[in-house]
Amino acid sequence: MRILVVSTPVGPLGSGRGGGVELTATALVAGLLGRGHQVTVLAPEGSQLAVACAGARLWCVAGEFQPSCQHQEQNDQIVIPADGVLAHLWRRALAEQAGFEVILNLAYDWLPLWLTPHTQTPLAHLVSMGSVGKAIDSQIAEISRLCPEHLAFHTASQAADFDLAQPPRLVGNGFDLTRYNFVAKPLQQLGWAGRIAPEKGLEDGAWVAAQLGLPLHVWGYREDGAYADAVEASVPPGTICWRGFLATELLQAELGRCLLLLNTPKWNEAFGNVLVEAMACGVPVAAYARGGPAELVQEGLNGALCPHDDRQALVAAARRAMAVDRASCRAWVEQHASQAAFAARIEAWLEGLACRD
Ligand code: HBI
């Protein structure tokens, strides 16, 4: 198929501002190319495709980045900035749609969702987050009634946030595991990775590291500086070692050396990419049983789970996770989250959609 993939409007692909959806886009595009499809990526100006996606065509459009809807209140109205890149992305997508069998939207935004019944070429949405506001929730509920096959979600707990008219299509996620090297002998350090923002719960990870008397290496885009400073001030000096936002090659080299990854979501994390990235390097995960992480972590097999927001329980889970066999973490990812398996699930979804309309 000729597939048009429309990326997130919050920032250029490759900048890290898009968070997990950037990783998903790379795996999905590379995976679909690998299955012989022709892929065009439509993204904000300044976007770059990973080497694995070199076979895809890249179209970029200028415009004001869309504010992240991550930190919205449930009743917030939709924001449309002047000269917004979102509007430009979809003007281009609609103008070019005749050249494609299917359009795949990766943006968590009102406009592409609203357009779904009105495009000639079928428009599919891989929903990247749980519920963040009523305006998007109602669009998803409406599509679920009009044309449910146009929606797919990463996990059951994420999909459960929405009022769906029928069981959700779940596609998990996928990773190019050749980019992750297994590390058998870890250093005496803990890891934490994710956007540095309140919904990711870094303060709990820092607290646990201080309790265990181990340094916490932190990777991620510093989205909320005040929050980061407050977390650092909440633990003894030297507890946190800030590593910044690193591209996958560098991230996995450092992450792989950790005893374990702490995962402390304060929101309904849709999937939990960093958990799979850690496990791919042999790093077990100690996580709150919330959202996607609760479906990824298998007690004793690739990590340990504890009741969410219970810091003491997370200390105990961290101790259990340290005893997990690192090779079984890698084996679990190869079985459940490889790029090839993910691309096959995406292809099955899109092929059903393309021929149906
Ligand atoms: N906000 N408006 C908007 N649109 C997105 O596509 C979007 C977002 N916030 C976060 C986000 N995407 C990604 O970080 C997802 O991977 C969560």
> How would a crystallographer describe the biggest sheet?
6 strands, parallel
Query: What is the H/E string?
Result: EHEEHEHEHEHEHEHEHEHEHEHHH
Q: Give the terminus-to-terminus CA distance.
A: 14 Å
CATH architecture of the largest domain, please?
3-Layer(aba) Sandwich
Explain this structure.
By secondary structure, this protein is α/β, with parallel strands linked by helices. It has 13 helices and 12 strands. The protein has a 6-stranded parallel beta sheet, sandwiched between helices. Helix 1 links the parallel strand 1 and strand 2. Helix 1 crosses helix 13 and helix 6 crosses helix 11. The longest helix has 18 residues. The radius of gyration is 20 Å and the shape is globular. The structure holds 7,8-dihydrobiopterin.
What keyword list fits this structure?
six-stranded parallel β-sheet; 13 helices; Rossmann fold; 2 domains; 357 residues; binds 7,8-dihydrobiopterin; alpha/beta; 15% strand
Write the layout of secondary structure elements.
Blueprint: E1 2-6, H1 20-34, E2 38-44, E3 57-61, H2 85-96, E4 102-105, H3 110-115, E5 123-127, H4 134-146, E6 151-153, H5 156-159, E7 190-193, H6 202-212, E8 216-219, H7 225-233, E9 240-244, H8 248-255, E10 260-263, H9 273-280, E11 285-288, H10 291-296, E12 303-306, H11 311-322, H12 326-336, H13 339-356
Parallel strand pairs: 1-2, 1-4, 2-3, 4-5, 5-6, 7-8, 7-10, 8-9, 10-11, 11-12
